[in-house]
Amino acid sequence: MQSQYQLKFYLIMIFVLIFAGTFLFQHFENLSFPDAFYFCLVTIATVGYGDITPATMPGKATALILIVMGAGTFLGVMANATQIVFDKRGKQIRLEKLNILMGFFFSETGTDLLKMLTIYDSGLNPSVRKSFKISSNWEDSDFTSLKKQLADLNLNIDTSTIRFVEIKKFLNEKGEVLIRLLENPTLQDHEALTDLLIATLHLKEELTARNQVKKLSDTDRSHLAGDCQRVYIQLVDQWIDYVRYIQKRYPFLYSLAVRQNPFDMDALVEVHANVTKK
User: Fold this and answer.
1) Rg, C-alpha atoms of the chain
2) Residue among 234, 261, 100, 101 at smallest CA distance from 178
3) What pLDDT, in 10s, does the model give residues 165-177?
4) Which of 99, 84, 87 has the alpha carbon at shortest distance from 189?
């Protein structure tokens, strides 16, 4: 961002120098506009062909000022333009690494955990589940529309039906994976995934801290359900971003995501004759 501001500043400066230099050369050296403009540019670029030289003291002073200020400004433009290109490339590389981390998370933990939690969402009626039924025909606008719907959907874990024993067992098995992901230095650039991992590890710690999760008080069940709810909402949001990304970048992974859709009760991993293979 700083490089962009600096580039704008240097571009403004160089245009001001070109305009001022052209005008002064016209005035002091009695040159035509094309010759004055040409002389101004070769002076700023320190090329100095020698075909036109200043004959007056004001013209020479103008040339000296343009050489000193123009060369520095021109180098500033080139340096900041180059830095922006490198920053953009670096950002693309970091984004790719983050998406790889996201893919690893959903491959190892996220998809199974989300499927487990959707079972306990009493608000997921057939109509709502249908809105999450992604397909190979989906476009970017479909994912955008689904993200907008999240605010209106009443995604809510049912405290009375949730089986904490199963969730505890699953998260204990995936604890090492979650910690490895959280330790990855690239993760600091992805706040949403970081929050999701912290919320998931917190749920694991809450469940692990209880020796007995089969018999809990209503208050304690409500507390744990709230932790599950926090993970659930973040999981849904990140799952949409994940499948949206792999549809564009990795169609073969998207095909598997469609067949493992945690919201589709009829989803089958096996590829059958009536399933379009990507």
Assistant:
1) 31
2) 101
3) 999 999 999 999 9
4) 99
Could you tell me where the beta strands, DSSP code E, fall in the chain? Answer: none
The total number of residues shown for the chain amounts to 278
Sequence spans of domains, the chain: 2-88, 93-259
Q: Which residues of the chain have pLDDT under 70?
A: 1-3, 48-49, 272-278
**Residue-by-residue DSSP string for 150-173:** TTTS---B-TTT--HHHHHHHHHH
Q: Is 274 helix (H, G, I), strand (E, B) or coil?
A: coil
One-letter amino acid at 24 equals: L
Residue 57, classified by CB atoms within 10 Å of its CB into exposed (0-12), middle (13-18) or buried (19+), is: exposed
2-88 has which CATH code? 1.10.287.70
Nearest to 246 by CA among 258, 234, 236: 258
Of 25, 20, 15, give the one whose Cα is nearest residue 53.
Answer: 25
The model scores a pTM over 0.85 = no
What Cα–Cα distance (Å) separates residue 175 from each residue in 112, 115, 167, 179?
14, 18, 12, 6
Strand partners of residue 121? 157
Residue pLDDT, tens place only, 98-135: 888 888 999 999 999 999 999 999 888 888 888 899 99
CB 254 within 8 A of CB 247: yes
Who's near 82: CB < 8 A, 6+ residues apart? none
